[in-house]
Amino acid sequence: MARPSGPRLRKVLAVGAGAAAGLGAALGPGAPAPALASGRPPVLAAPPSCSIVPAVIVRSLVGEPAQTAVETHPVPSGTTCTYAVGSNSLGVQVTFLPVTLAAFEAVEQDYLKGGATKVPGLGQAAFALAPRNTTYENLFFYGSGYNLGIIAAAPLPKMVNLAKAVLDRLQ
Predict the structure, then answer these.
(1) pLDDT tens readout for residues 51-65
(2) What Å distances lie between residue 137 and 8, 120, 144, CA to CA?
(3) Can you give the chain as a three-state secondary structure string?
(4) At what angle do helices 55-62 and 156-170 cross, to 10 degrees?
(5) Rg, C-alpha atoms of the chain
(6) Could you tell me whether strands 70-72 and 146-152 are parallel, antiparallel, or unpaired per DSSP bridges?
(7) Could you read off the pLDDT of 7-39 as tens digits, one per residue?
(8) Structure-model confidence comparison of residues 155 and 140, the more confident one
(9) d(Cα 47, Cα 1) in Å, to the nearest integer?
(10) What pLDDT, in 10s, does the model give residues 94-149?
């Protein structure tokens, strides 16, 4: 399957943006932060930095000669880390979007109905989109109040290893 684009990518980003905006609006001055399913309050301050996933970790776990990440913020409190691999400026992408576990699970159920595969043993919930006409694999997982995504031209087991490293570094 191609990189998420169009309606599918907008759905994933909308969940993150909607959750971030909704939480921001719900939290007036002095209001207590609501707890996520994990019992932790959602992350509303600065979004994560790509320093959580240095290129050396991407290179060692995914097996791609990833360059230093280019950090962007597609939605409030969200971060996308894009690592060029050779001449491919979109070689590996790691995305952090603050959402609740319930919101992530709702999106996951929709993808599972559309043919995605559940990935056990990775965070609180995870699924992958199997490639069809491309070498890119799409892995989405949940942990520490974030919908996390990894998109790369790498085998799923290597991406799962990277995902585990990301989860460990978010703790």
Answers:
(1) 999 999 999 999 889
(2) 15, 16, 23
(3) CCCCCHHHHHHHHHHHHHHHHHHHHHCCCCCCCCCCCCCCCCCCCCCCCHHHCCHHHHHHHHCCCECCCEEECCCCCCEEEEEEECCEEEEEEEEEEECCHHHHHHHHHHHHHCCCEECCCCCCEEEEECCCCCCCEEEEEEECCEEEEEEECCCHHHHHHHHHHHHHHHC
(4) 150
(5) 15
(6) unpaired
(7) 444 444 444 444 333 333 322 233 333 344 444
(8) 140
(9) 29
(10) 999 999 999 999 999 999 998 899 999 897 899 998 666 667 889 999 998 999 99
Tokens standing for 75?
A: 């939605």
Place of tokens 């050396």: 56
The rounded distance, in Å, linking the Cα atoms of 24 and 27 is 5
